[in-house]
Amino acid sequence: MAQLATLLSRAQNGLTADLVTVEVHLAPGLPGLNIVGLPEAAVREAKDRVKAAITTCGYRFPVQRITCNLAPADLPKEGSRFDLAIALGILMASEQVPAGALQGVEVLGELSLSGELRPVPGVLPAALKATQAGRALLVPAANAAEALLAPGACVLPARTLMELCASLHEGRPAAAAAPALPQACDTAPDLSDVRGQAQARRVLEIAAAGAHSVLLVGSPGAGKSMLARRLPGILPPLEADEALEVAAVASIALGGFDPAHWGRRPFRAPHHTASGVALVGGGSVPRPGEITLAHHGVLFLDELPEFDRRSLEVLREPLETGHITVSRAARQAEFPARFQLVAAMNPCPCGWLGDVSGRCRCTPDQVLRYRAKISGPLLDRIDLQLFVPRVDAAQMTDDGAPRESSRTVRERVVAARTRALRRQGVANARLDGKALEQYAQPDADGRALLQTALARHLLTARSYHRCLRVARTLADLDGSERAGAEHVAEALRYRELDRAPPA
């Protein structure tokens, strides 16, 4: 007589986890294990891992025709996450493990040949979905801490198949206790390390307060990279839902999430040889790219003109929308991409244009061709653009000069961001449509200044709106109810990339 066992699992699909029913059927016939339901290579190879694990743990592998169906059949299945569910299904169908022991439980885990349970990626999204469905989640012990980050999750950890089966004979395995979430600590480099660069520090503070994008232009050694790496340290702390999104992205894209990193804003700095797919995500099975890994954090692109122009152009949509949709012939996935772009570049091919040393020998045509590597539409989407001069010798050697720490600057940033959130519900950089008209309009003097800039063709419609957002952030930092002419004037100064840098 044929036997049938059914368990529940989850398949990874973008940043979500779709429910998969694992059905194991035993019937007379030529012995073998056949896995159906659109499995990819790693899933098809599960038959060898499962057979070895079952026999190594002292159980009998049925000498029958075994069919394992992963439903729904039209959903692609990938990875080794179904190993444990398939093995338990075989043991339940052959009556070696109680059939009802995992009622209301979803199962994830990879099996080694010895029966040890190995961690799998994407456990946190699966735990969130299982909790929403009111079910417990059985995972390898190495994944338990990550799964417990899901609020209200019931997590059943297991170390080996043998121990798990022994506990199933006695009832359902014991649930793990949810640990206290670690407090986010200051791990980013401190802003007090920066000497001089008062204007650049001011731009970083504005960017942090309003979630604005930044372009730093300066000679080699001016400190552009040093400044960029200190932006995460002055950003406001992550909210609980934001921290959960960051953890879910890391769980899928990086193979897992370490709970010790809870609450830290990501900082991603891909090399300039990165392709468009590496930046935005892709592949035959869509995977997150660097912009998604930088979600709620900072994406730093050093040597911006050295990136392939086509790779940079793919950033235009996510900079506006905060998400990216990756479409392939058979799959489509949407990934979040609410990141802050910080880019750095030299002012000319040799890097010394405008430097006090006077060593630049680039012709005007060479400078124009170099800057033309960055398209106008992309530059239009960068809120703050600043020339960063080299620090002079006096500033480099003045060790006794007091310098503000990241903690001090972050207090002002948090106060300004709080004003914006209470007023409009989003950071100033995300104001759009009617909200932009309602909350970011400056006073009469400020409007007159903007109209003059428009009349002189210094601004496009998009850069006009970005100046409004930056001016609103400057007003929040000053504690002003409305942006004035001084705020608009400062915002306009950060749109002057095309002017010659100071000599």
Automatic annotation (TrEMBL):
Gene3D superfamilies: 3.30.230.10, P-loop containing nucleotide triphosphate hydrolases. Keywords: ATP-binding, Nucleotide-binding. The keyword ATP-binding applies. SUPFAM superfamilies: P-loop containing nucleoside triphosphate hydrolases, Ribosomal protein S5 domain 2-like. SMART domains: AAA. Residues 289-388 form the MCM C-terminal AAA(+) ATPase domain. It comes from the Bacteria. InterPro entries: AAA+_ATPase, CHLI-like, MCM_dom, Mg_chelat-rel, Mg_chelat-rel_C, Mg_chelatse_chII-like_cat_dom, P-loop_NTPase, Ribosomal_Su5_D2-typ_SF. It holds the Pfam family Mg_chelatase_C. Belongs to the Mg-chelatase subunits D/I family. ComM subfamily. PANTHER family: COMPETENCE PROTEIN COMM (PTHR32039:SF7), MAGNESIUM-CHELATASE SUBUNIT CHLI (PTHR32039). This is YifB family Mg chelatase-like AAA ATPase. The lineage of its organism: Bacteria, Pseudomonadati, Pseudomonadota, Gammaproteobacteria, Nevskiales.
